[in-house]
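[agent] plan:
  1. take the single chain provided in the ticket
  2. run structure prediction with default settings
  3. attach C-alpha cells to the ticket
  4. add a short note for the reviewer (M.T.)
[agent] executing step 1
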Amino acid sequence: DEIDALCRIYRKLISNSQYAAKTLATGSSSAAIVKPHATVEGVDRIVFRELLHSTFDIVTEEILMERIFCCWDRAHEGLPLRLDGWLTGLSIFLRGSLAERANFCFRVYDLNGDGFITKDEMFTLLRNCLIKQPQDEDPDEGVKDLVEIVLKKFDLDKDGKVSIEDFMGTIAVEPLLLQAFGQCLPSETATVSFFSTLQI
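[agent] step 2 finished; step 3 output follows
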C-alpha cells in the first residue's frame, strides 16, 4: 500500500515537473538554465527541492540541497529522479538503518565525490553556521577553528581528512553527529507526518 501511495506521489511530482518546465520555457528569462529532458521522465531539481522544503522541513544551504538531489539516486546521479531511484532514496531517507543513513550523509558531504570529506569541504559546509560579528577581523577564522575541532572528532586515522570508515566509526559511537555538516535528513516529526499522509 505504501509503495502504491509513493508511486502516486511520484506521478504527481512528474506532472509538477513538466508544468514547471513548460512555464519556464514559455515565459521566463531564466529558461536557458532549464534544459527539458524530453527522453528522460522524472522529478527535476526544482520540484525535488520544493518537496524537501515543504514536506520534509529541510531548510539548508543551496550546496546541500544540490548534493541531496545528486546523491538521492546513485544509479542516475544528477538526472531527473526516476521511479526506482525515488523509491530507493525514500527508503533510505525515511526508514534506513543508521549505517544506510550515515552512508547517504557521507555521500552528500563529500562534495567532489573523491571518497573523503576534506578540510576545504568542511569549511564550505560549515561556513554559514556561525554568526559573524562586525568586530571580527577575519570572520572566517571562527569557521577554521570549528573545522579543526570537527576534524579531531571525525578523523579517526589522523590522516587529515575524513574517510567513510572514519565517518561510520564516529557515528557508531556518537549517532548525534550524523548531520554534523548540515541537515540532509528529515526530522522525526516530518517523517511521522509524511507517513501519516500515506494512510489510506
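[agent] step 4 note for reviewer: The chain has nine helices and two strands.
[agent] ticket updated
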